[in-house]
Design goal:
The complex is a heterodimer of chains A (251) and B (403). Helix content of chain A is 34%, strand content 25%. Chain A is of the alpha/beta class and 251 residues long. Chain B folds into two domains: 2-350, no CATH class; 351-403, no CATH class. The chains are: A alpha/beta (251), B alpha/beta (403).
Chain lengths: 251, 403
């Protein structure tokens, strides 16, 4: 379980997250909505442990451990992984090597690349000259190799063409154990109960909702988590009235 | 001959244009006797280990020939392949008239006091030649080993790839474990004939107090390719070299790659200069420099003399723990339509790259090592796999020291 209690975060001398409470139980996936600059990415980076996001109050726990002051790699080891929107490129580090680093102990990189239609990129330097969609596929390949228990997705569908959106949507569904395939001899209820993966997905366009079911939606507005409801419902409201409506709840 | 000796004598005190001046009298040139060996496997394990770090492999069947020199004495010189000649240069100068056509033809004895010393007080060195049409199956190797403390090793090497031949050489320079101080003065003259391909990979594995002054030049004829790789990752007191290559035949190509690591108190000044003097010639000078507290000057100089020649310089530097990196890329175009460019960057490791890798489970040190490894991994087209492996091994070894 991820439990965030009354979290306050500063970036530089600016307070960017205020009184955040969030709970993601094993098996749950939450969708995070919010206008540009509302602090969505900052929340993900804070959960991942980026040191420039200074926690000034509150607490983050994961799997029962207080991780508020853990380093990034300690959190990664504990089972937190992130798919970045704009990851840095590293010259001389092949994509293949990066996937191996993620897996820690051996993974069939070429089979993985096949599934994500990414074989041609394995010998290329990671993220160097990748398009938006290529970055997304690369990130998903890394996350699959890493196999974390809490998966943070920062706008996984942005910059992805229609051809690949299905692939990306379905892969995220798989990673979060939300494939909704019928397995003989197993009821849907059983499958749901066996789910352990936790997800937190930032989306602007809502496209991802066509492929991944989610348990909860949240709106982050001006550093405050303002709404907690059915994600499809939230998305519909945002489409109709925009984020203006959130102002009322956020005050 | 007399002429050259006179010229050399006149240049005995002549300081080099670049690099700190070395007091030659501080080093002894008297070589201790070293007996010839029949097989490099006879060498003590300790020595073979030191040599292996500089890419010198004593196993059978992995090299097409070997030259080994200890201090001033040539102790082993054998070719296993027909059409490949490996001869100590002193023997070659005595017995083979043609060697004179290649001896001191590309370099002047009075360039500086180091060339003068190599002329006047030559210990030995090698001539490695691939006869016309010969293609070596495995790289040939040459090792210059300093075993005597405070020794000045003065060598002269001539490398010839005759027409249509393909020659790969790995040359390792190393000191015995107990040696801390020494001087290596090495003259090298490279001849790449018509349609020949020569790759020359030099790995230096010196000690902290060794000074190194290589002086080398090469000429590439029509359709020839000269690939020159230089790796210096171990601590060294002072190293300065600026090899020059002349592309004299149509379509000749030169590629220079250097991987440099500067350690505290070390001074590295390494460059590559190429004259593009024939139609359709191409040149590339690429260097990666990392400093842990040493001072590095990475130079490159391309001189385009005809329309349509192409060249590129690339100097990238990474400052890890203090020290300095000075990138000096120079381009001179002497005709319309030359196409030459350079790119230079000096900086530190980007924090966001480290954090990105840490979020994939690496510790901060592992992440740094991974980025450094990537920085040093340069794709060298045309380099045979065993040589690439040697370079990778040198990089890995140095990384263990760095971290």
């Amino acid at each position: 379980m991820l439990l965030i209690e009354d979290l306050q975060v500063m970036l530089g001398d600016k307070e960017i997250l205020r009184h955040i409470d969030l709970e993601i139980k094993p098996g749950e996936t939450h969708i995070l909505f919010g206008p540009n600059g509302s602090g969505k990415t900052s929340l993900l980076m804070t959960i991942m442990g980026y040191p420039q996001y200074r926690v000034t109050a509150g607490k983050i726990s994961f799997k029962g451990e207080d991780i508020t002051h853990m380093t990034i790699n300690e959190r990664a080891r504990l089972g937190i992984g992130m798919s970045y929107q704009r990851p840095p490129s590293i010259k001389g580090l092949k994509t293949k090597q990066m996937v191996e680093i993620c897996s820690g102990n051996g993974v069939d990189v070429s089979a993985l690349a096949d599934r994500l239609n990414f074989s041609d990129f394995l010998e290329r330097d990671i993220n160097v000259g990748f398009s938006g969609g290529e970055i997304k596929r690369s990130e998903l390949m890394q996350l699959t190799a890493q196999n974390p228990d809490l998966l943070l997705f920062d706008e996984p569908e942005s910059g992805v063409d229609l051809e690949n959106i299905v692939l990306i949507g379905n892969t995220i569904g798989e990673l979060l154990q939300r494939e909704h395939k019928h397995i003989p001899g197993k009821s849907v209820k059983e499958m749901k109960e066996e789910r352990t993966k936790m997800g937190l997905i930032i989306t602007h366009t809502g496209f991802i909702l066509d492929y991944v079911t989610a348990d909860m939606g949240q709106v982050l507005y001006n550093g405050i988590l303002a709404c907690k409801s059915n994600p499809t419902e939230i998305f519909k409201q945002i489409k109709e009235v925009g984020y203006e409506e959130c102002v009322r709840c956020a005050i | 001959m007399r002429d050259l000796d006179t010229k050399a004598r006149e240049a005995k005190e002549k300081k080099a244009v670049l690099g700190p001046d070395i007091d030659l009298d501080a080093y002894s040139t008297d070589t201790p006797p070293h007996e010839a060996i029949q097989d490099i496997e006879q060498l003590p394990e300790e020595e073979r280990k030191r040599m292996l770090m500089a890419g010198i492999d004593s196993r059978k069947g992995v090299r097409s020939g070997t030259y080994l020199q200890k201090d001033g004495a040539s102790v082993y010189s054998t070719s296993f392949q027909e059409g490949l000649e490996i001869i100590p240069i002193k023997t070659a100068l005595e017995k083979l008239d043609w060697v004179q056509d290649y001896y001191w033809k590309l370099l002047s004895v009075d360039t500086d006091k180091y060339t003068a010393r190599a002329r006047l007080d030559l210990h030995n060195g090698y001539v490695i030649r691939a006869l016309p049409g010969t293609k070596v199956a495995f790289p040939a190797q040459a090792c210059m080993y300093i075993e005597k403390e405070g020794f000045s090793q003065n060598v002269h090497n001539i490398i010839i790839a005759e027409e249509d031949s393909e020659l790969h050489i790995i040359t390792g320079c190393a000191t015995a474990a107990h040696v801390s101080s020494g001087l290596h003065v090495g003259i090298s003259e490279f001849y790449v004939k018509k349609n020949a391909k020569l790759s020359f990979t030099m790995i230096h594995h010196w000690s902290e107090d060794v000074a190194v002054r290589p002086r080398s030049a090469g000429v590439v004829e029509e359709g020839g390719l000269f690939l020159n790789n230089y790796i210096s990752m171990k601590p060294v007191k002072s190293l300065q070299m600026y090899p020059t290559t002349y592309l004299m035949g149509t379509g000749a190509v030169a590629r220079f790659y250097s991987l440099l690591v500067g350690s505290p108190a070390g001074e590295l000044d390494v460059g590559g200069r190429v004259y593009l003097s024939a139609p359709e010639t191409r040149a590339e000078v690429i260097s990666r420099a990392i400093t842990n507290g040493g001072n590095i000057v990475a130079r490159g100089d391309l001189i385009g003399e005809l329309p349509g020649v192409r060249g590129h310089l690339e100097c990238r530097g990474l400052i890890l723990k203090g020290g300095s990196i000075h990138a000096v890329p120079e381009l001179t175009g002497k005709a319309d339509g030359v196409d030459m460019s350079h790119e230079a960057a000096v900086g530190k490791i980007a924090q966001d790259e480290i954090l990105y890798l840490m979020s994939r489970g690496l510790t901060e040190d592992e992440a740094t090592a991974t980025i450094v490894r990537g920085f040093l991994s340069v794709d060298i087209p045309g380099l045979p796999a065993p040589l690439k492996e040697e370079i990778d091994r040198a990089v890995d070894l140095s990384q263990q020291d760095m971290m």
